[in-house]
TrEMBL record:
Keywords carried by this UniProt record: Sigma factor, Transcription, Transcription regulation
Family under the similarity heading: Belongs to the sigma-70 factor family. ECF subfamily.
Domain RNA polymerase sigma factor 70 region 4 type: 95-147
Protein name: RNA polymerase sigma factor SigZ
Molecular function via GO: DNA binding; sigma factor activity
Gene: sigZ
SUPFAM superfamilies xrefs: Sigma2 domain of RNA polymerase sigma factors, Sigma3 and sigma4 domains of RNA polymerase sigma factors
Highest taxon, organism lineage: Bacteria
Leader sequence residues: none
Domain RNA polymerase sigma-70 region: 2-65
Length: 178
């Protein structure tokens, strides 16, 4: 199985992560999961899609863990004061978004900070704020929508085929966010 699948799986993974080393680690993880869970596969005809689902989930897990390892900001003031010397478009837009969060209504600001920066699930957000799971999910989605609206009012964005910001231009010099 390794000989047949390792090259196409590695290509699949490398298209979705930046580092060859990370791709290799994810590939090893995929084969570990295949080995330990193959007994639960019900339909052998769907083996290929099952394997690629494991790969997609492993990539998502990789990014989830990487996000968790990044710095967590305790207060909105700390979040707003962060600056980064690197100047890629994604990082600059991320800084704008961090500033924009401070302009959200309190309930949306709280939802974004707790889910995106303190890594709470939407269910945990609901439990913490007294909302139902669907109410918490709606609040996070509305907050994201408001951030997107603010960003698009402020900036003109150019994306690559993967959805990464490759360039941006402020629509006016008096943007209060960036």
């Amino acid at each position: 199985m390794w000989e047949e699948l390792s090259k196409p799986l590695k290509r699949f993974i490398k298209l979705r992560v930046k580092s060859d080393q990370d791709a290799e680690d994810i590939l090893q993880n995929v084969f570990y999961k295949i080995q330990t869970n193959i007994g639960g596969l019900r339909d052998v005809d769907k083996l290929n899609s099952w394997i690629y689902t494991i790969a997609k989930n492993s990539i998502a897990d990789f990014y989830r863990i990487k996000k968790f390892e990044t710095e967590v900001f305790e207060t909105p003031e700390e979040l707003a004061s962060v600056t980064d010397d690197e100047s890629t478009a994604n990082e600059e837009i991320a800084q704008c978004l961090k500033s924009m969060i401070m302009y959200l209504p309190e309930k949306y600001k709280e939802a974004i900070l707790l889910t995106e920066y303190h890594n709470l699930t939407q269910k945990e957000l609901g439990e913490r704020t007294g909302l139902s799971a669907s109410g918490a999910k709606s609040r996070v989605q509305r907050a994201r929508g408001k951030l997107k609206e603010m960003l698009l009012c402020c900036c003109q964005l150019e994306f690559d085929r993967r959805g990464n910001v490759v360039d941006y231009k402020h629509k006016s010099d008096d943007c209060k966010f960036c």
